[in-house]
Amino acid sequence: MTNRYVYGVVEAGDGVDREIDAVGGADRIYTIEHSRLGAVVSDIDTTEPERTDEDARRHDDILRELMDGGERTIVPMQFGMVFDNDRALKNVLRGGRPAFRRALSDVEGRVELGLKLVREEGAEVDDDAVRGAVDDELEELAADSVEEGLFSDRLVLNRSYLVDRENREAFDEAIGRLEAEFEEGGDLLVQYTGPFAPYSFVDVHIGAQ
């Protein structure tokens, strides 16, 4: 039996059908549409794919490629979302349509960018002052932001930002100013990543079947 591995959800008519290295050895992604929505999928032999580094990278790379150029908005699914038949997948699209429509509206024309500030070993840093400086530069340029976990005692800030594509250049320039300010003294390392599919700003929970 062939199952459907789901990368994300798009507007109906905004789908895709192309050959590409995909999760689980698949070589094609395409769209299954229902209720004005489309799920971008590939065919996979298992309902429980192993999360290898290679497949996790393929999952993320496909989402970034689908978003490239800003012509398509996609609500990303986390790695491992698999349905064993099209009916089950279409039932989820139908039942979750209001939530998916809201999510598509929330992230349309936007990308996720990540910022980590890492304290150098032994450095003394005023965490509140650093966060205040970041807010002064970035708060007005982002549509939204979320705090991620401080999983190390050297992390001063770990935050994801939702940024309009039209503000991306200004946001990059602001990050450049922060890098110049923080790295000049040698106390902080700036880690700026992205763009990513907006995982941190999508709150749609569905169960695979």
Automatic annotation (TrEMBL):
UniProt keyword terms in alphabetical order: Gas vesicle
Q: Is DNA-binding among this UniProt entry's keywords?
A: no
Superkingdom of origin organism: Archaea
Q: What is its main location?
A: other
Keyword Transmembrane assigned: no
Q: Where is this gene product found?
A: Gas vesicle
GO CC terms: gas vesicle
Task: Cite the Pfam families for this sequence.
Answer: GvpL_GvpF
Q: Which family does it belong to?
A: Belongs to the gas vesicle GvpF/GvpL family.
Protein's recorded name: GvpL/GvpF family gas vesicle protein
Species annotation = Saliphagus infecundisoli
